[in-house]
Amino acid sequence: MRLILASTSPYRRELLARLRLPFETACPEVDEIPLTDETSSQTVMRLAAAKAASVARREPGAWVIGSDQVAELDARPLGKPGGREAAIAQLSAMSGREVRFLTALSLQRGAVALQALDVTLVRFRALQTDEIVRYVDAEQPFDCAGSFKSEGLGIALFDAVESQDPTALIGQPLIATARLLREAGFATP
């Protein structure tokens, strides 16, 4: 069976490679702007499904994985910072607070769509401005929801992480991915 990851994210590609299944990658053609009347969980579920569907339409017969993640502080979504000042501002706002990370997954082929949602809670420790600046300058997490890389130095920003799947925080919940792939007929491990 053919498997395609509907993402250009190096983080998601590295995570999926852990399952040791052959796969290709493709760029989904999806407008990622949230709709005004939807919750964060509705947004990530819709976008994960839209990414998978976008590639599945171009690649009939292939199983396609789409994923999306939103960080949420005080029930408001936080986007990817895109630059240094925005990353510093995001981390400053999250200092000493709890942030929810919603990571959605959609596995599609034709009319079949399997979905999952992981919710991870991250408690940030109280951060000093100089710590935030040093961190941002060291890892430049400008393409990451929440402005950190938990798989790297970003872990030093936390007091605790609560999750059913530690890989979800990086952007691809592998426990759910493996479960959906098994449901689709893939052999994992």
- How much is the average pLDDT? 93
Computed structural class: alpha/beta
Q: What amount of the residues lies in strands? A: 25-35%
Q: Please give the largest β-sheet.
A: 7 strands, mixed
- Which percent bin holds the helix content? 25-40%
- Low-confidence stretches at least 5 residues in length (pLDDT < 50)? none
Shape: elongated
What is the name of the CATH architecture?
Alpha-Beta Complex
Number of domains: 1
CATH class: Alpha Beta
Number of strands: 7
Distance between the termini: 15 Å
- Name the quaternary structure: single chain
The CATH topology is Maf protein
Number of DSSP helical runs: 5
Short structural summary:
The chain has 189 residues and is of the alpha/beta class. The protein contains 5 helices and 7 strands; from the N terminus they run βαβαββαββαβα. Strands 1, 2, 3, 4, 5, 6 and 7 form a 7-stranded mixed beta sheet that branches.
